[in-house]
Amino acid sequence: MSADGKTDDEIRAILGSVKIIALVGASPNPDRPSNRVMRFLLGRGYDVIPVNPGQAGKTLHGQTVYGRLSDIPRAVDMVDVFRAADALPEVVREAAALPHRPKVIWGQLEVLHPQAADAAREAGMDIVMDRCPAIEIPRLGL
């Protein structure tokens, strides 16, 4: 079983249901995984909103970068987290405080935090951890 306990069908359903993704930790460096994954997701038709306080106001792959989740002027379906695992609780807290909570918090590879996962579920959000949508989408044939 996977680290997050999700089945392939659950991952398939999540990736099929989300349209707008906030990508926390988006980097302008094309060599960084967050940059490549953002480009991949945009190419697959997702609406990806980059979040990075040091890049706020700039653009990345043609998308305006925001400093925080709360700065994004519209609801998002999923928050994809490219931060260290110890940052996940704060991301979950910020997402839970949004007027329209995202459906899913997605922790990238090696982003695992059991307490943050519990907090996300308690706030009514699903959570995926230690996975990458750019790996899961081709693996699942989506």
Q: What would you note in describing this structure?
A:
- It is a single chain.
- With 142 residues, this protein is α/β, with parallel strands linked by helices.
- The chain has a single domain (8-139), classed as Rossmann fold, CATH 3.40.50.720.
- The chain contains five helices and seven strands.
- It has helices spanning 8-17, 33-43, 88-96, 114-122, 133-139, and strands at 20-24, 47-51, 59-60, 63-64, 78-81, 104-107, 126-128.
- The strands form two sheets. A five-stranded parallel sheet has the order 2-1-5-6-7, sandwiched between helices. A two-stranded antiparallel ribbon has the order 3-4.
- Strand 5, helix 3 (88-96) and strand 6 (104-107) form a beta-alpha-beta unit.
- Helix 3 runs parallel beside helix 4 (114-122).
- The longest helix has 11 residues, at 33-43.
- The two termini are 21 Å apart.
Q: pLDDT average, as an integer?
A: 96
Instruction: Please provide the count of β strands.
Output: 7
- Helix content estimate: 25-40%
CATH names the topology as: Rossmann fold
The H/E string reads HEHEEEEHEHEH
Give a quick account of the main beta sheet: strands, pairing sense, barrel closure: 5 strands, parallel
Give the uncertain stretches in residue-range form: none
Principal-axes shape call: globular
**CATH classification, class level:** Alpha Beta
Structural domains: how many: 1
Our Rg estimate from Cα atoms comes to 14 Å
Instruction: Examine the secondary-structure arrangement and name the CATH architecture.
Output: 3-Layer(aba) Sandwich
Distance between the termini: 21 Å
Structural class: alpha/beta
Would you identify the CATH H-level superfamily?
Answer: NAD(P)-binding Rossmann-like Domain
SS field, number of helical segments: 5
Strand % is 15-25%
Which strands sit side by side, in order, in the main sheet? 2-1-5-6-7
What oligomeric state is this? single chain
